[in-house]
Structures are given as C-alpha cells and as structure tokens.
Amino acid sequence: MGFSMRFSSRLSLRRALVTSVVTAALLSFVAAPAGADPGFYEPPSPLPPGADGDVLKTLPSKFTGAKSTRVMYLSRDTANRAIPVTGTVLVPDKAWSGPGQRPIVAYAPFTAGMGDQCAPSKALAGEGGDFVSSFQSSFVSALLDKGFAVAQTDYQGLGTPGEHTYVVREAEAHAVLDVLRAAQRLPGAGLSAASPVGVAGYSEGGGASASAVELAPAYAPELDLKGAYVGAAPADKAVLAKSLDGGMYVGFLGYSLIGLNAAYPEAGILDLANDAGKQLFDEARTTCTLDAVFKYMYKNSGQLTKDGRPVSAYLDQEPFRGIVAANRVGTLKPAAPVLVEHTPNDDVIPSSVGRQLGKDWCAKGADVRFQDIPSFSPVFSHVLGITGAQGNAANWLSERFAGKPAVGNCGRF
After folding, report:
1. What is the model's pTM?
2. Where is the secretion signal located (predicted)?
C-alpha cells in the first residue's frame, strides 16, 4: 500500500472514530425544557442609563449547593457602547470560613456555541446547551466547593440579541469584569464592593480571563483583583487561523470570523465568503459546540472564500492585520498574579500559544507561573484538559485569597 493510500485509510479511520464519538455524545444529551421566563433575555429598550455592571433585571435560577440568580447587567462592546449581557451569580449554601469577606470568582465559560440556546446561564440551570455544558457546571462546582461565590458571564450576544462576539478581546474582558461588579451589587447576595475577586477560564474562557486581567487596571481599577487562572487561552488568532483550518475543530475558526465580524462590521469580513461560506456562517450562527464540530470538521477555509485563499492568507493585509493585532492577548501587564496552563499536546489550541502568552507577560514584569496540564490521551486532549484545569484553578485562587504569595517561574519555561 502506497503512502497516500495508507494516509487516506488512517484519515478515514480517524474521521469515523470522531464521528462515532461525537454522535454518541450528541445522542446521549437530552436538553431540558425551556426556561419558565424566556422574556428574561430580552433587554429593556431603550437601555436605561447606568454604570457598567449595574443590574438591569434578575431571575431565580437553580444549581445544586448554591443560591443561583440569573442577572442581566450593563457592559460595553468593543466600540465602547453600552450593551446588555446576561449571566449567573451563585453563592454557596455553606458559610465562608476563610479570611475577610467571601471572595467572588468570575467564571469565563469556554466555547458554548453561537446560538442563544447555548447561553451558559441556561445550561447551568439545565435549560439549554449540549453535552459539553456538563463541563461548565463541573468547573463552577469546583469553585463553589472552595466557598467562593461565582459570577458567570454569557458574554455579548449569547442569550441577548445580536451576534456573540466570540474571542473578541475587549468585549469579553468587559463582560467578565462587569459580571463581578454585578455580583457585588446584587441585592440579597451578601456580597459587596469590598469583596475580593478573582478570574478563571479555560479555552475561550481562558482568553477572556487573560483579557480581563490585563485590561482590569484601565477598565475596572476599583476591583480588588487577587489573581487570574488562564487555561488554554486562544491568545494569538493568527496562529489559530492556520492550526484550526482543515482540522476537526475548524468550526471554531468559523465562530471566530462571525464574532470578529460582529465587532468590526466595517471590515466586511464575511464579504470575502463565497456562497458555500455564507451558508456555513448562517448555519453556524445557530449552533452549539458539538453541533459545529460535527457539521464542519475537516473543512478547508479556502473552499469557502471567493478567491480560494485560506483565511490565514488575508491576515497580512489591512484591515485584518490590525484586527488580529488588536485582539492578541499579552500586550499589557496583568493587574494581578496569573497562573497560565496548557496541555502539551492540545489538539485545538497549540500549547506554544499559551507558553508565548506567559513569556509576553513575563517580559512586561508580570507575576506569572506557567505549567503544563497533564494529558493522558492524544485524542480530545483539549477537552479532557478541563478536568485538570478546574481543580488547579480553584486551588491556586484559594491560595491567593488566603494571602499566600504567588510563586512565579518567569525565565524558566
């Protein structure tokens, strides 16, 4: 058998394996009924005046072991316009036994999808999302088990009207920082402006957490930010435009283009698409994570553009070069100690991206620790890395809230 035939056979086998696993996951998930108040996600029009983080409305939610409240709060998009964002504030049933006031951790969710039904606040309440949503709940539970209150954001455009600005640096940072403000101001939660805060996220959430900790000094200087956990962050979109293309997770590249187009409509990003590309974008806007993976894996972006060039070929020309540069994370010194982690054989976001993020911050004099998340399988290593990340995040933040000094390792990774 020649090399090309052997390669084709291995690729076909891998695709068959992936298809069977993903199909099983999709079939094993049965969505719960829709929420009792679908109108909660419709913002008041016009938006009332207020400060970033002000709570616009609330809705009782449910989560085992915690008082859970859905919130709609004010935040800002990339153009600095006021927008409504939804999320969940969870306060553990057990009393806080640590020093000072109960801390609040902003949980930045990983990729949930682009459709409104995928909003993490719905998934946490058992009302939406897909099989992957169980990982969101697990991460939140790890934080609650430490006694932390958790403030989870849906980001811009998930649940609320408009497109989700997927992996857009400023919009996601604002949503994360403002959900902390919303938690501090939420009546009856027992939290306050004096509550110390932290940030944690993995994958998309890792990028949002990283963006939040480096934009906090300018955007939310009043927050008593003790530390940030950054797992598998998509810090450099130029690298991902190449690494995702044609692979199993190419749907995430489509998500990125939709999100960037929503944030920068003047660039006309989606105008580059041919008819097949436009159809993909229209479909992808309504999908949750597993659906996108299943539908679009192994597609090449060059088949979706008018001139046949892959997405990565456009990134050296304006306005796309400027957009990619503006959304690279690691250009500012973080406001607090940071733990950056990555699975060495990550099959979605190359570990070199996370490692470089840590080095970029070190070069600016930040307090950074980088370490690997142990991986026990080369298949689905990115997704499986979440299980290690959630415990590491909770333990590391617990030490920061206890006043223990962070031990960085700049220059040694």
Report:
1. 0.91
2. 1-36
DSSP letter for 373, please. P
Q: Helices marked H in 244-350 — which ranges?
A: 250-263, 275-284, 289-296, 320-326
| Cα radius of gyration rounded to whole Å, the chain | 20
What is the rounded distance in angstroms from the CA atom of residue 102 to the CA atom of residue 91?
9
Q: How crowded is residue 315: how many other Cβ atoms within 10 Å of its Cβ?
A: 16
Q: 228-252 pLDDT, tens per residue?
A: 999 999 999 999 999 999 999 999 9
3-state class (DSSP) for residue 230:
strand
Instruction: Please tell me the chain's helix, strand, coil percentages from 3-state DSSP, rounded to the nearest 5.
Output: 45, 15, 40
Q: How far apart are CA 385 and CA 350, in angstroms?
A: 13
User: What is the distance between the terminal CA atoms of the chain, rounded to a whole angstrom?
Assistant: 43
Dihedral sign for Cα atoms in the order 136, 333, 146, 183: negative
| Cis peptide leading into residue 99 (ω within 30°) | no
Residue 3's pLDDT band (boundaries 50, 70, 90)? very low
**pLDDT of 25 above 60:** no
DSSP 90-103: EEESSPP-SSSSPP
Q: Are 340 and 357 in contact (CB under 8 A)?
A: yes
Amino acid present at 84: P
Distance CA 101, CA 183 (A): 13
Report the pLDDT averaged over residues 375-402. Answer: 93
Domains of the chain: 53-236+328-401 (3.40.50.1820), 237-324 (1.10.260.130)
Q: Residue 89 pairs with which residues in a beta bridge? A: 69, 151
Q: What is residue 374's DSSP assignment?
A: P
Q: For residue 314, what are its two tokens?
A: 């456009």
Alpha carbon distance 275, 237 (integer Å): 24
State both tokens at 255. Answer: 């998500």
Q: How far apart are CA 284 and CA 244, in angstroms?
A: 16
Residues, the chain, total? Answer: 413
